[in-house]
Amino acid sequence: xxxxxxxxxxxxxxxxxxxxxxxxxxxxxxxxxxxxxxxxxxxxxxxxxxxxxxxxxxxxxxxxxxxxxxxxxxxxxxxxxxxxxxxxxxxxxxxxxxxxxxxxxxxxxxxxxxxxxxxxxxxxxxxxxxxxxxxxxxxxxxxxxxxxxxxxxxxxxxxxxxxxxxxxxxxxxxxxxxxxxxxxxxxxxxx
Length: 191
Description:
The protein is an alpha/beta fold.
C-alpha cells in the first residue's frame, strides 16, 4: 500500500499561517522534505488548491518574476518543484470544486476515495495540505507519516496546524535533523 506523507512548515508555536493568512516566515516553498524521489502524486484540499495552482502556474510561466507569497523570484529548488508538479498527478479532495487549470488534476469526494487512492499501485502520495484536510485525514488514520519543518519563531495569532484535530493520536518520532537558520526537521510515523 502507498503511504500518505504530510509535510508542513510551522512556527514553534504550531502556526502554519500568520494573521494575514500566509506563512511570511517561509523564504521558499520548495521540496524541503526530500519527497520528490519518493512520491508520484499529490493530495490537496479544496480550500488550498486554487492558491497552490495559481502559485505554481505563475512560477512555471514566469520563472524570473517575484512570486506573491515571498516577494522574491523562485529559488532553484522552487523551479525544480514547479517542473515536478507540472508532470505529477494532483488529487483534490473537495465537495464543491470540479475544474482546474492543470491537466493532471482529478477531484475526489470522500475519505473512502483517499483510502482507495492509497490502494492503487505507485509510489507514495504527498499530502500538501491544508490544515483542515491534514487534521481530518490524521483523525481518520489515513496519514502514515508526518514531516514537519519547525521555524524558530513564535508567530502569535494565526492558523494552528492541528486546530481542527478531533482525535488524540500518538506519533512515533523517527528522525530529527537540524537544518539551516535554526530550523528543525522532524519526521513522525503515525500510528
